[in-house]
Amino acid sequence: MTAYETDNIFAKILRGEIPSTRVYEDEDTLAFMDIMPRADGHLLVIPKTPCRNVLDASPAQLEAVIRTVQKLAIAAKAAFDAEGVTIQQFNEAAGGQEVFHLHFHVLPRHEGVALRAPGKMGDMAAIAGHAEKIRAAL
Ligand code: AMP
Q: Would you list the domain boundaries of the chain?
């Protein structure tokens, strides 16, 4: 197993070294908006303690993160009047992972609306508005 690297983007977000649009946090987890949203309301949930992904996470980290994923999935679904929610999670580069700090994607979904292509920067003002809607639904 490759070691956790402390200079990954999400570790920097946790340390406050780079900005993020935070929507929720508790003692163990943080939820913030994805800057390349594949759907309106696309957010990420991470543990505050280090682990690369599901392969090296402790049961306690997984439990804390999935509790917050559920809380945010319910809030995001309500905030966007969505019919469903897609939850994505990738492990190591071969598994599609690009940032090596455990994270779950939460994507509100509407019937017949495809996810947008990955890798395109979102409009930060729109993302801030989406975050506010989710906070209000929490
Ligand atoms: P993956 O590791 O494949 O789950 O992809 C990493 C995700 O992190 C992508 O959806 C990116 O858009 C997102 N991302 C990368 N940098 C940032 C950032 N600074 N703030 C919020 N989301 C980010």
A: 9-137
Q: With a 6 A CB cut-off, is 29 part of the ligand 1 pocket?
A: no
Q: Which ligand 1 atom sits closest to the C-alpha of 33?
A: 21
Render the burial of 81-113: b for 16+ CB within 10 Å, e for the rest: ebeebeeebbbeeeeebebbbbbbbbbbbeeee
Q: Does the annotation mark 101 as catalytic? A: no
pTM for the whole structure:
0.98
- Rg over alpha carbons for the chain, rounded to the nearest Å, is 14
Average of per-residue pLDDT across 44-52: 98
Rounded to 5 degrees, what angle do the CA atoms 56, 68, 126 make?
A: 110
Q: In this predicted structure, which of 1-5, 65-69, 101-105, 129-133 has the lowest mean pLDDT? A: 1-5
From the candidates 103, 105, 110, 130, give the one annotated as an active-site residue.
Answer: 103
Which class would CATH give 9-137?
A: alpha beta
Kindly report the CA angle at 67 between 66 and 69, in degrees rounded to 5?
Answer: 60
Asked if residue 36 has its Cβ within 6 Å of ligand 1, the reply is yes
Tell the residue nearest (CA) to atom 22 of ligand 1: 34
